């Protein structure tokens, strides 16, 4: 795994000691960036490698959490967030800066004690169940977002870009994007509602595996195969346990407001909701296609690409 700075490869291979310093290195670069740009608007995206396996932690936190290596890693990430917030305050811009803390997916359960827990949620990373897709999101902007409040409203990370663009008065690109401005929800405006009709769970090779109502209450899992530990424990010490395959044989509906663990299929009780979500699934297939039903979408967009990084030593 190379270490890249801008478009330059500064180190081709990272040893164990290098990886143990990644969280610290990222944090130092974040603080330096804030200090250099404190007098002008900026967007800074800090994406930690941890706690993705393999886990590494610096000597500052090794063995300090009392909860094993995974706990040590999270303790160091917590320290990193604190350093970023302190830098914003030290530079006098903490009240002018929106800070968003979130994650990309749920725990990689096959790694057991190196993976964390999905709590009451079903399954984990690599699935369209809530344990794989529902993640925490913490927003901080003194004076603009009410402190000490919480919300159970549905959002996806696709909504961050158009929301931030709206806040800074930037124009959205001319081509279609999937996200929508969700600032009324972010800021806790009275009566604010999710702007989407529905959300879609695509996984594997363009498989439409689930669809939900925009408010996040109703979620319909479509027929597909998924991986599971089947109730068995995950691995330990960085060695994963093996998954097994299971199938959703027919569309299953879950009321996430009452059953966040997706334990009880209520499709027969709510045929109208099933029909509405199946109609949304058809809209998605017509637009983006669906490998599970062998559909070719008319709105498929080419992914963005970057030039291959040059190598320096």
Tag the structure with descriptive keywords:
313 residues, alpha+beta, four-stranded antiparallel beta sheet, three-stranded mixed beta sheet, globular
Summary, kept brief:
This protein is an alpha+beta fold and 313 residues long. The chain contains 7 helices and 11 strands.
3D architecture notes:
It is a single chain. The protein contains 7 helices and 11 strands. With 313 residues, it is α+β, with helices and mostly antiparallel strands. The strands form 4 sheets. Strands 5-6-7-10 form a 4-stranded antiparallel sheet, covered by helices on one side. A 3-stranded mixed sheet has the order 1-2-11, with no helix packed on it. Strands 3-4 form a two-stranded antiparallel ribbon. A hairpin with a 4-residue loop joins strand 6 and strand 7. Helix 2 runs parallel beside helix 3. The longest helix is centred in the first third of the chain and has 23 residues. The chain is globular and about 55 Å long.
């Amino acid at each position: 795994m190379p270490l890249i700075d801008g478009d330059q490869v500064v180190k081709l291979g990272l040893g164990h000691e290098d990886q143990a310093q990644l969280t610290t290195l990222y944090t130092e670069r974040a603080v330096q960036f804030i200090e250099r740009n404190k007098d002008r608007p900026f967007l800074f995206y800090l994406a930690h490698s941890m706690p993705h396996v393999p886990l590494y932690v610096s000597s500052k936190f090794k063995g300090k959490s009392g909860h094993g290596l995974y706990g040590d890693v999270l303790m160091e990430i917590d320290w990193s967030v604190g350093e970023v917030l302190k830098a914003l305050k030290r530079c006098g811009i903490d009240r002018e800066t929106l800070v968003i803390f979130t994650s990309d997916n749920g725990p990689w359960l096959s790694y057991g004690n190196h993976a964390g827990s999905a709590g009451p949620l079903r399954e984990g990373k690599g699935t369209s169940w809530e344990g794989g897709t529902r993640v925490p999101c913490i927003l901080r902007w003194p004076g603009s977002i009410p402190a000490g409040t919480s919300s159970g409203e549905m959002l996806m990370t696709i909504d961050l870009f158009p929301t931030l663009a709206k806040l800074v008065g930037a124009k959205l690109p001319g081509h279609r994007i999937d996200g929508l401005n969700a600032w009324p929800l972010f800021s806790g405006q009275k009566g604010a509602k999710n702007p989407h009709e529905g959300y879609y769970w695509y996984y594997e090779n363009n498989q439409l595996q689930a669809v939900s109502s925009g408010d996040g209450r109703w979620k319909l899992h479509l027929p597909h195969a998924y991986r599971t530990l089947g109730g068995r424990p995950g691995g330990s010490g960085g060695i994963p346990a093996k998954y097994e395959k299971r199938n959703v044989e027919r569309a299953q509906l879950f009321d996430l407001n009452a059953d966040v663990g997706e334990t009880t299929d209520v499709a027969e009780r709510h045929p109208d909701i099933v029909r509405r979500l199946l109609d949304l699934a058809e809209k998605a297939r017509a637009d983006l296609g669906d490998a599970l039903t062998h559909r070719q979408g008319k709105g498929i967009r080419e992914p963005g690409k970057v030039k291959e990084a040059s190598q320096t030593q």
